[in-house]
Design brief:
Length: 334
Amino acid sequence: MSHAEEDALEMSADHEHRPRQQSALDEGAMLDPVAVDDLDLRFQELRLRDATRASRLRTSIEREGIHQPILVSTGVEAGALVVVDGFKRVRVAQELELTHVPVRRVDLDGVNVKAVIVVANETRRPLSAVEEGLVVRSLHREDGLSQTAIGDLVGHHKTWVCRRLQLVERLAEGVQRDLRLGLLSAAVARALAALPRGNQARTAQVIAEHRLSGRETARLVRVLKVSSPAERDAVLADPLSHLATSGQGKRYTRDPRLDAIANQIREQLLRLEASSHRLMELLRAQAPAHLEEAPRVVLIELGTQVLPAARGAVRALEGLLLEGASPGGTDVGT
């Protein structure tokens, strides 16, 4: 089941299971300006940085100022104005050297502030699953709440809490650090969580170097999960080539070094590589010996037709490679 399908099921299950903290957002005190330097940002690491959204927000604030007040709590610590919602606005205000910002005060303790970080964003732009996981982990590990109690607090089922907690705790420390710094997106982190923690750092470095999107990262992770250690090294050394071969029906980019015929050969080689990886993945998942008699007979019959053609293609390819390696050969490139 995909992440989107799992989230859709959770949303359906949680439809009537809404948190009580929403009322706190409607009971805030009157707006008043507060010095930016007086704001307490102790919970800012529960929110991820997004350079694109921050840039748009900065442009808006430069042009129109801050109209939506920063939500702060006076109940976490005596005398402290702890930011609950509006971390990006505060950072932009600091960058622009604004002295004061409008705030709305609520009286919530630390546990309920964390819950409101989730609740306050559900009606506007929901948090990513990773950000939700950061809040859940903080409530579970730092505040000692059970998963059931967290679910009651934020208005979600225990399974929602469990999945968010597992998502964040599957991430290597280095990946979590890069997330907090805005070096990796939440979508990339969510895809990386499917890999063993020991493999995430190198993969994250490759993703950053090649500026892969969340969707491309998910495809890369799928390839890595079915690859041997030697194959993983090859994939990480040239991820773009392997991504080009992993999409079904994808049009392959033309290599400008090659003529039309050589490019067609290159495309078929890339498709052959992708098909071979996919076939190995399927064979590992379903050994032919475990198939029923009727489908096994069909596959054996088809295999006896395909293998001679495959062997012929391999012999032709070997001839081409040997010719290309000879002093007078034609190097078609790949």
